[in-house]
Amino acid sequence: MNYQLVLKNTNLGDGTTVDIAIEQETIVAIDTGLSGEVEIECRGLIALPGFVDLHTHLREPGFEASETVLTGSRAAAKGGYTAIHPMANTNPVADTAGVVEQVKALGDAAGYVDVFPIGAVTVDLGGVQLAELGAMADSKAKVRVFSDDGKCVSDPLMMRRALEYVKKFDGVIAQHAQDPRLTEGAQMNEGQVSAQLGLTGWPGVAEESIIARDVMLAETLDSRIHICHLSTARSVEIVRWAKQRGIRVTAEVTPHHLLLTDELARTYDPVYKVNPPLRTEADVLALREALIDGTIDIIATDHAPHPAEAKECEWDAAAFGMVGLETAVSVAQLVLIDSGRSNWQRLAEVMSLNPAKIAADLGQGEAIKVGSTANLALVDPAVQREIVAVTESKSRNNPFAGMTLPGRVVHTIYRGRPTVLDGSIVEVAR
Amino acid sequence: MKHLISAADLSLDEILSILDTAEEMSVVNDRDVKKLPTLRGKTVVNLFFEDSTRTRISFEVAAKRLSADVINFSAKGSSVSKGESLKDTAQTLEAMGAQALIVRHHASGAAHNLANSGWISSHIINAGDGKHEHPTQALLDAFTMRKRIHGSHSRGKSLDGLKVLIVGDVLHSRVARSNLLLLRSLGAEVRLAAPATLLPANPNFLGASYYLGLDDAIDEFHPDVVMMLRVQLERMSASFFPTAREYSRGWGLSAERLARLSENAIVMHPGPMNRGLEISSEAADSAQSTVLEQVANGISVRMSVLYHLMSGETRE
Ligand SMILES: [Zn+2]
Ligand SMILES: [Zn+2]
Q1: Residues of B whose CB is below 8 A from A203
Q2: Is the pLDDT of residue B313 over 70?
Q3: Most buried residue, A69, A77, A170, B113, by most Cβ within 10 Å?
Q4: What is the distance of C-alpha B75 from the center of its chain?
């Protein structure tokens, strides 16, 4: 018989080569010699479950000059993603059912990835009054992940209340761990480089002390906590310790913290300004180790688009953040595969299975097997590509631009439909 | 040399060349007619985003003595305070004919950005950027030390083996950073004395060892030069130290501490001084103090820097 769509000769990452047949949104057969009405040649490409980003900034509503739900969705598809979780720090803040439903509707209309909005923990990210978490959970957006990202839920009592409150619908609080007092005016990692550059330091302890507090709160309350963008070796140690105790903590690392160090600040080029800041080589190595050994559960991009003028200025005046949706899998390949330290199964876990599980995303992060939703990224691991700043994203604050990174997303299949073919976006019929 | 951004960018030869030319300039400055035609027809802009009348006037006098046209642009009350970017301001000034921008900015790295971002092609002289560097201050300090030690035989001399103690708010001081880098290139041994709160988090800052009290530093290091940094009183409200009195007791150069220095030791301060806080009047006004020489030498050194960057563009 002829299936609707067949991916020919895909490599499953374990050395086996198969055809994958798709009907509607579902994988219906995995075998050799399958034929379809439409066939996509995938020889030499690794088939991976479509990636899931648990930490994206889409800037809509409010800052559409930097990114919209549509442009961010296209950038995500280009990077092999089939689901993203936009953070709540828009304008207005995503702290009500109305805003999260609006963002989800924009995502549905764009049609490139599932857009699962993250809700704010506190009203207007103010840290003072709990947002309507229940209403957001019950809304059409079915929010399960809540975060004041950009800001830390620094008040311990507020954190306690939030951790308890979301248990009703098995929600999770994603903490941007940053003690505000220890980071007043902070510009970059506090250390030898900041001392020489005369830029105000962001000490690792400002992150570590919040993580230590929050894992203990989670233990006390038997709640679930997710730590955003781990950046230091000591943060890794705290999470490792917490997991050994059985605390229900998950942790993420960004591609940039896996690859770049604070030495780059010597250029005073604000493209390297990010929060939490780029740390030292020792921190990078510890984060990589933790990703390999399972202490860190996921890679999340913290894709943070900014307009040119927010980066074309002196360091102090520049915005924090860098884009990352279209380069994440390359960094993952570098760290897990090309290092010889891990395997494609692990890459699938950290890029897809684990984030979908943390966020309880329906139809995402499923292993490639018959019956699974047909969300797939097909990656050519043999390519070395020079990264360019001009991409599907509206913004160009790309710290990887000019670097050569391995691997390229060739095709992306989102719920049975190609969104990227041969490295190019497939325009959605409107 | 196209720009002067950081003391770290200067080789020993370049430093000595700048200091030796400054010796020539100081001869001019002692004459009745203190003017050279070197930069006639060239335009230098003092681009100051932060008030510093002393530094601005020093550069202005230096440029005028080399016959340059000088434009003072204070960012306060200008389009900058209405949100114009550093890039636009610099490009506007260059479009008006500026060939060199002398830049004072509250953000570390601002001069570096102007020199390296490709926004403009003018010479950039860093006249103090945030907490980063102030290289002409370090050059004039080195010039002053050399002159005190070697007098009229200063030309060609380094500062080999000279023991320099920098005291005070190292963490926030661009003067300390530039001096540390420049003096090290000149062969001096530099140590620091400060409350731990005012030292950079990495205690072995740029390889300099440190003392947490001024008394230990004087007794153990026996410095040839004591350089006092200005203390900003707003540090007190931010709990870097409890009170002015306690700071003065721990790290101020009192008459009693001055007496414990070797009699040839010199006392420096970049100004403006807080008398009674980081430096006593006895120390500031003593024969060992170089405070006024530093001001006078500043003009000679800045003339030398302008000359090195701008005269005969063939130097590059
Ligand atoms: Zn964050
Ligand atoms: Zn973020």
Answers
A1: 201
A2: no
A3: A77
A4: 21
